[in-house]
Amino acid sequence: MTTLLFWIFGLAAIATAILAVTFRDILRAVLSLLLCLLNVGILFVLLDATFVATAQVLLYAGAIVALFLMATMLMGGTAPKPSKIPFVTLLVIILGALLFVELACAITRPAQVASSEEELQAYPDETASETSSAEEKKSAPAKPLAKETAPQFGSLASVGHEIVLKYALPFEFSAILILEAVIGVVLFTRRTPRSKNKFEEKA
Amino acid sequence: MTGLFPYEYLIISALLFAIGATGVAMRRNVLMALIGVELMLNAANLALAVGARLHNNLGGHVLIVLVMVAAAAEVAVGLAVAVRLFREKHTLDMDSADTLRN
Question: What is the DSSP string of A23-34?
């Protein structure tokens, strides 16, 4: 069942991603991006990352796509034609395929080399009782992803616990980062008629 | 219910990343390039989720949340640059931002 769902939504994610990159109309591309993000959110659910899936829907599919839609409707239109140099598009696609092959090789290689066997195969098969921690990963080695994890693995409570207790400082720094980004964006896009006139006079 | 191999998720993630990178390089529109960047960040998030599940470690999920915050900030700044570019050049073509060249 999970396998079937994985293949359905994984392939849907890839198809919508390709659509998002190839659509000439930007609005359609943004809507395809929305579908792709939702599909990846479902993949997160299949990976027991329910909190991350929620954040994905709220933050990516909600806020970021809304920003893209606003920008598209503000500046809108269709994309300019692909590059005039004839072989650029083909070349870029070939390079993208090469990148994928490279990544695939990098992903599948450690299976044969297995420099540290325990590290690679250390996913627990039994349910952990408490919020899972790194110490619990040294249990029965199994090849596929473990069928069961802790019941609250990836839930809002456990991830929140982790954020507040172990990763509080990086989290606060991320808050400062986004505050700075918002202030910078407001300052950057603010219309200042007087200074603009001055600039035009100088130019 | 058969357990999936992590490689299948990772291959999907790699494919999404490659598609996003291709999109960034192929399209000359600023908004399309930003869409490609979003796809790449999302692919990285998927790989992080696989890692967290693989090692039963919630640090991966926390890192995903941080990456999402960074992605939101990046999109806000990127769209602000696009708005500024559109206001000054009246186009979204990336090649039009060549003021520093002359």
Answer: -SBHHHHHHHHH
- Residue B47 distance to chain A (closest CA, Å): 10
CA-based radius of gyration for chain B: 17
Q: Is the pLDDT of residue A140 over 50?
A: no
In angstroms, rounded to a whole number, what is the distance separating the alpha carbons of residues A7 and A201? 61
Query: pLDDT tens for residues A157-169?
Result: 888 888 999 999 9
> CA A152 → CA A48, A161, A163, A195, distances in Å?
9, 11, 15, 56
Q: Considering only CB atoms, which chain A residues are within 8 Å of B27?
A: 21, 79, 82
Query: Nearest Cβ partner of B31 from A2, A72, A83?
Result: A72
Q: Which amino acid is at A55?
A: A
ipTM for the predicted complex comes to 0.91
| pLDDT number for residue A134 | 41
